[in-house]
Amino acid sequence: MDRKSINKWFDRAFYVLGLLATLIGLAVLVALLLDVLSDGLGSLGWQFLTSYPSRRPQEAGILSAWVGTVWIMVLTGLLAIPVGIMAAIHMEEYSKKNWLTNLIEINIANLAGVPSIIYGLLGLGLFVRAMQLDRSIIAGAATLAILVMPIVIMSAREALRAIPSSIREASYALGATKWQIIRHQVIPAAMPGIMTGIILAMSRAVGETAPLITIGALTYVAFLPTSPISSEFPFFSIQGLFDPFTALPIQIFNWVSRPQKGFHADAAGGIIVLLIITFTMNGLAVWIRHRYQKKIRW
Known about the structure:
α3 runs parallel beside α6 and α8 runs antiparallel to α11. The protein has helices spanning 3-40, 46-50, 63-94, 99-111, 116-130, 137-161, 165-173, 178-206, 210-215, 248-256, 261-295. It is mainly α. It folds into two domains: 1-40; 46-295, MetI-like (MetI-like fold, Orthogonal Bundle), CATH 1.10.3720.
C-alpha cells in the first residue's frame, strides 16, 4: 500500500470516528432531554410558574427562582459584557506588547479555567464581607460577572484579531482617527465573534450553582426582589439590587436533594424552564450576531 492510499485510509477513519463521536454526544443529549421532558412536563403550568416554593411538592412553584435568575442574568450581562469588551479593545488595539501585557494575557487565560467554587469564595470574601453587600442580588451578579469575564475578553480579542489589517490601513488613508476606525469599522466587523463569546459566557453563568451557594444565596424564598419601577418620585428604585435572592439552579438543586418523588418532578420542570431561558438568551444573541453579519461587506 503506497503512502497516498494510507493517507486516504486515515482520512476516512478519522471521518468515521468524528461522526461516531458526534452521534454519541447527540444521542446522550437527546436521551437527557427526553428524560427531563417526560418527568417535568406534568409539573409545568401557570400555577408552577406563579407560585412560591412550598413544603408540598404539588403546591411548589418557581416564581422567586426564575425571577431571581432573570435579575442575576441581566445584571451579570451589564457588568461583564461592557467591561470585557473594553478590556479586549484596550489589550488588542492600544496596549504595547511587552512583558506586562504578556503576563496579563496569561493570567486571563488561566482565569478562564479556574473552578467556579473559587470565584464563589472570592465573591464571599470581597462582595459579601469586605464590601458589605450581604447576600444580595448585586453580590451574586458581580461574582458571576467575574466568573465569565475572562471568556468575554478572550473571545472578543480573537474576534478583533481576525479583522484584516487592510481595513485599518484603508481607514487611516482616508484620515480617520484610531477611535473612529475601532468604533465604525473594527467593532461592527468583529461583533459576530464577540456575540459568540457572549453566548458562551452567559450560557455558563445561567447554570452556575456553586458560586451562588458559596456567597449564601437562599434556597427558600417566598418573596420577590423590589421592583425597579416605583410609584413615587423619581419612579425608579435600586433597592432590589440589595435584596436576598434565589435562582433556578439553586432551587433545582434543593428539590433534587429531597427524597419525595414529587420534588424530583418539580426539579425536572425547573430544568425545562431554565433551558427555555437559556435558549431565549442564546436565540437573541444569535439574532443580533446574524444582523451584524448581514451588514458586513468586505
